[in-house]
Amino acid sequence: MKIGVVGCGNISGIYLVNIGSKFKNIQIAGICDLIRERAEGRSKEFGGLRIYRDMYEIFADPAVDIVLNITRPNDHYGVTKAALLAGKNVYSEKPLATNMEDARELVELAKEKGLTLGGAPDTFMGAGNQTARRLIDEGAIGRPVAATAHFLGHGPEGWHPDPEFFYKKGGGPMLDMGPYYITTLVNLLGKADWVTAFGRISFPQRMIGSEPHRGEVIDVEVDTFTTGAIRFASGAVASFTASFDSYTDFSEYIEIFGEKGSLRVPDPNTFGGPVRLLTPGRGYEEIPLDKGFTGNSRSLGLSDMASAMEEGRMHRANYMQQLHVLDIMTAFERSSRANAPVAITSPFERQPLVDPDKICGTY
Questions:
Q1: What is the pLDDT at residue 362?
Q2: Are the CB atoms for 275 and 286 separated by under 8 Å?
Q3: d(Cα 330, Cα 179) in Å, to the nearest integer?
Q4: The pLDDT of residue 20
Q5: Residue 31 within any structural domain of the chain
Q6: Rg over CA atoms, the chain
Q7: Measured between alpha carbons, how far is 96 from 177 in angstroms, rounded to an integer?
Q8: Given CB 3.0 to 4.6 Å as the disulfide criterion, which of 166, 233, 259, 288 pairs with 191?
Q9: SS3 of 147, please?
Q10: Domain range spanning residue 270?
Q11: How many alpha carbons lie under 13 Å from residue 356 in its C-beta half-sphere?
């Protein structure tokens, strides 16, 4: 299937590397960016890709099967809506939108038009997380009762070339990094039903330390420290902290605690990583990963979406998952503001494990 790419920022590079090389069932039709120089740079880097005048030229091209929306988070809703209205299937970077009202509108629009909608993250489809899920489903740790996850760091202003949007509405550590952690948790533990949380803006201003905006000051609009608990329909409870306020850098693993043992799941922003199983009297043992992707395989979810469209099934990185993850993430802020637990009302169903003998797009 032919992919029209909207957005040529930092994340576009790995998508352009993997589409058509690692995943043979998808190819680049062309690219565009509001800053044409970015598109020209990517086109030159990848052998002369077609540059569309703007996203509307992509939407009008009958050769484009799927629009890949890798714009900034605040632009996801507008670009995806415009593409759906033009009759295009859409795969977007995370999150689906920055609030539940907009996200629900996109889902209903896709349903109304009979279009396929999905998006990142797809790291949960990597060999690391797939191995962990198989072990849990097979009962290696018994019934899961609790989990803990942390994303701790001091924000992207020290390295990102244009970090301001991380601290504006639609940004923050929860919407930026939370999708990886929450997506992994729901794939391991199933549907969530309640969230209770606290959050704060610890530093009202941030100074950029990276070029080309070194020395400029960002006024912070979103919580930069969020912590709370998610209760799942199964009864399991997970604690999660997302922070741009810590000089400690910790995102190494998620731990799932079960009746018969514990499982350390790899950093959810990776496709591989070690899976370690703890059973009483034996300590942690590293488990060999199941067959699958272990390197940076962004576009895996897009490839699976293209395969699913041809096979008439639900793809794994689908809109239902995106909506449920956004419901959970935004519930952290809603709970903090209300100083009360918040119910999660969006539906969610886990999709089958990736078939190791029929890896998406490579067979």
A1: 56
A2: yes
A3: 11
A4: 86
A5: yes
A6: 20
A7: 13
A8: 233
A9: strand
A10: 123-287+325-343
A11: 10
